[in-house]
Amino acid sequence: MKIKTCSILYIAVVFIALSCAGLFARQASSAQPVAQVAAQYPGPVGLFLPPCIYAVPGIEMNVYFDNVICAVNPANYIFDVTCTKGKQQVERWTFVPTEQDVGKTPFVLEVRDESNQIIARAESILEVVADNAGAGVSVSVLTIGDSLTHAAVYPAHLLELCKTNGNPQIKLVGHVPGEKNPDVRIEGYGGWTAQRFATFFKEAKRVTGPADWKEWNSSGSPFLYPDGQGKFKMDFARYCEEFNGGKGPDFVTIFLGCNDNFGARDETIEASIDAMFKYYDMLIDMIHQVRKETKIGALLLVPPAATQDAFGANYKCGQTRWQYKRNQQRVVERMMEKYGKREGEYIYLVPSNVNLDCVNNYPMLKTPFNSETKSEGVRLNNGVHPSSEGYRQIGDTIFCWIKAQLALSVTSGK
């Protein structure tokens, strides 16, 4: 009897051991080694990183994980950053560089599923430039965009960042959107698209100052002028005569894509982006016809606020956050394909999409949860327009990009 018991116990132990070994073997085989996954593998979550993440000592730079994938619920995935700089948190990688961090560092982001299998992988370069890059250099910057530029917060933040020692002296080019700070000059109009900048002509005095935004936006494109034959044409040289002493700007940022593709659906988004690119390219050609060395920063379209609450507040049942997110992510992907690796043509991707907190840096409203309770909670209440804090994150990204280009100009002589 004793022998039987021992035999049964032995068999049970062996069975459990074999079962566990099989389980561990299956788990090990399901987790793909890094070597088996391509350096750039978007996978089912559509992971895309910009080719370069610019940073400057003392300024926080982030990669928010939900911003670089297209998934209904990012909490269903595990994010794994490989980088010798910064730290990984629940929702982001974050880094405030010091002068000792100056240089280029590889940045790898992998996405894993619950079985620990790598389902997406992307690589980038973290480029930290010296705190004194471009110190004292006078540069002109033209910001072109829609309502996100119209708010004039990130251009104002650019000026603020340059007030400290070691920074360039930035002159903003364009009309004055308000009377508080005449140095804040922009070409940003609510609701505008690349097509409107390239084709909308209205022969009238341009609106400047604190006018009603509808009157402001009804002005014709600032880059179109009468041709003397009853028609109009793009005349950036004349624009520069009016607003920049006859010189092409040193830097131009283009922050468009929201209105161009807002109403698209999955079946129409490709044609919508194609149409945007037609006019986007016209703007790029217009600028480079006047000065080919003007550095054009194509701002990658930023993601929307993190919840449907924000879209309900603005658009009722007219648009969902998920559809807009799908559109936005596809715009980013197509922009990377079209405008990436064109630095030799003075065209650059500015990674504004990665460094925006879409949970905390969009406008919020404290409101009762429903009509039958006094309990209140906070809901996001603007779908595509960040709060001032969010706009300043966008300004940080642009500032770091400009500093990187000025640092490069010193070393290359360009």
Task: Describe the model.
The protein is α/β, with parallel strands linked by helices. The protein contains 11 helices and 17 strands. Residues 1-35 have low confidence and may be disordered. Helix 3 packs across helix 11 (388-412). The termini are far apart. The strands form 5 sheets. Strands 8, 9, 10, 13, 14 and 15 form a 6-stranded parallel β-sheet that branches. It is globular. It folds into 2 domains: 31-127, Immunoglobulin-like; 132-412, 3-Layer(aba) Sandwich (Rossmann fold). Helix content is 34%, strand content 21%.
Précis, in short:
The chain has 414 residues and is an alpha/beta fold.
Map the helices and strands.
Elements: H1 2-30, E1 52-55, E2 61-64, E3 78-82, E4 87-88, E5 92-95, E6 103-112, E7 118-128, E8 138-145, H2 147-150, H3 153-161, E9 169-173, E10 187-188, H4 194-199, H5 213-217, E11 224-226, E12 232-234, H6 236-243, E13 251-255, H7 258-261, H8 269-290, E14 295-299, H9 308-315, H10 321-339, E15 347-350, E16 364-368, E17 376-380, H11 388-412
Parallel strand pairs: 1-7, 8-9, 8-10, 8-13, 13-14, 14-15
Antiparallel strand pairs: 2-5, 3-6, 4-5, 6-7, 11-12, 16-17
